[in-house]
Amino acid sequence: MKYDDGTTYAHEGRLTFTDVTVNETTGTVNLRAVFPNPDKVLLPGLYVRAQLIEGIRPDSIVLPMQCVMRDAKGNASVYVVGEGNKIEARPVVATRTIGTNWLIDSGLKNGDRVVFQGFQRIRPGAVVTPKEMDLAKSIAETGKPLF
Question: C-alpha dihedral over 37, 43, 18, 49, to 10 degrees?
């Protein structure tokens, strides 16, 4: 949090509430944070500019948007290569985008093999010969990740 003159408030606070609606006129969201106030410089109802650091999810699964399909009701799913190299449609929960990727909240686990290309030639139950992608090699050759 910063004062009007640009100096930083010395104490860290804790976010306690986030509103679910965005004010369409101003593009703002109401938040409530609790800060220690030992010097009594903060007043009730004071508006401030604050920098929020969101939580870290170290075991997150992020997929390129092209991997995630939506049905008519908006439910998300992905094709995975299952046992016996059979294609399965797996429901997932993908509620947040990060750039051109989806953050997968549930439905996949570490080690699941997700179909990245060739959607026009597969369907659930089809047996495939998967080709594993070497992400490190792809980055070395192109200078950038695929997604």
Answer: -90
- At 22-64, the pLDDT tens digits run 788 887 778 888 889 998 888 887 777 777 776 777 778 888 8
Q: Would you say 3 and 39 are in contact if contact means Cβ atoms under 8 Å apart?
A: no
Largest CA distance in the chain: 68
Spatial separation of the C-alpha atoms in residues 16 and 28, rounded to whole Å:
17
Q: Are 46 and 66 in contact (CB under 8 A)?
A: no
Residue-range domains of the chain with CATH: 1-55 (no CATH), 61-129+137-142 (2.40.420.20)
